[in-house]
């Protein structure tokens, strides 16, 4: 029987899981695998169930309960290893890294921020600010015969948009940096140009949120800030447990 892994905690974590069940139908009993200084929260599961989309809410419920009682290193949804021995080996071989991660995220939660900008508004700004771009656009609109003009204009606008978005992202990070313990860049989703995770101490949560709201207000209606958290600190773990296929 394969083993589904939810999280790693310190040996002294109470792991209070009364009333919860693990993934699968019916939900598998939750249990722990313990080494000298660490515990992994797991349940038995067929390997095929690991990446079932229905596991996500069950997985999150386990993590939420664990976070109520102490520091947690979350394992990504769907992580399955062959057996208890594989979990124990990972805990023993990477014990120092896991303990370091536990200290790093202690008293913190992860918050994710994505920012998108209205494309038409961005184009208008660039044309207003750049004489060259505006001249190219006017030439195209007046049926200039040069077939390369649209390409030149597109390259110019794309380059200017990237530069503006890089500067905006740098400003966001700089403004939030004093309130966080760590920051990690993420791949932007959908139409966002900026995506990052922040490791925020619990006692700075309200200040961090207020700062993010202030940034959104300063940016104006052309920008859309998408804010998510508090979350388990997925982005700040240095040694994730490898799955069966790794």
From TrEMBL:
Transmembrane segments: none annotated. Keywords: Gas vesicle. Its main location: other. Pfam families: GvpL_GvpF. One of its GO terms (cellular component) is gas vesicle. GO terms for biological process: gas vesicle organization. Belongs to the gas vesicle GvpF/GvpL family. This is Gas vesicle protein. It comes from Streptomyces brasiliensis.
């Amino acid at each position: 029987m394969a083993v589904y892994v939810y999280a790693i905690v310190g040996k002294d974590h109470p792991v209070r899981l009364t009333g919860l069940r693990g993934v699968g139908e019916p939900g598998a009993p939750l249990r722990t695998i313990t080494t000298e200084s660490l515990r992994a929260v797991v349940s038995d599961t067929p390997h095929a169930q690991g990446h079932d989309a229905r596991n996500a809410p069950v997985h999150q419920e386990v993590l939420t309960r664990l976070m109520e009682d102490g520091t947690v290193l979350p394992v990504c949804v769907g992580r399955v290893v062959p057996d208890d021995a594989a979990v124990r080996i990972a805990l023993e071989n990477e014990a120092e890294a896991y303990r370091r991660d536990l200290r790093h995220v202690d008293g913190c939660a992860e918050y994710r921020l994505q920012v998108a900008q209205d494309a038409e508004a961005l184009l208008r700004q660039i044309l207003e600010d750049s004489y060259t771009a505006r001249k190219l656009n006017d030439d195209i609109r007046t049926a200039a015969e040069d077939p390369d003009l649209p390409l030149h204009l597109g390259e110019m606008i794309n380059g200017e948009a990237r530069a503006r978005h890089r500067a905006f992202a740098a400003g966001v990070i700089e403004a939030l940096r004093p309130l966080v313990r760590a920051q990690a860049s993420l791949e932007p989703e959908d139409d966002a140009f900026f995506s990052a995770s922040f490791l925020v101490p619990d006692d700075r949560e309200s200040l961090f949120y207020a700062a993010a709201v202030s940034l959104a207000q300063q940016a104006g209606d052309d920008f859309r800030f998408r804010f998510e958290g508090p979350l388990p600190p997925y982005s700040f773990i240095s040694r994730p447990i490898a799955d069966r296929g790794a």
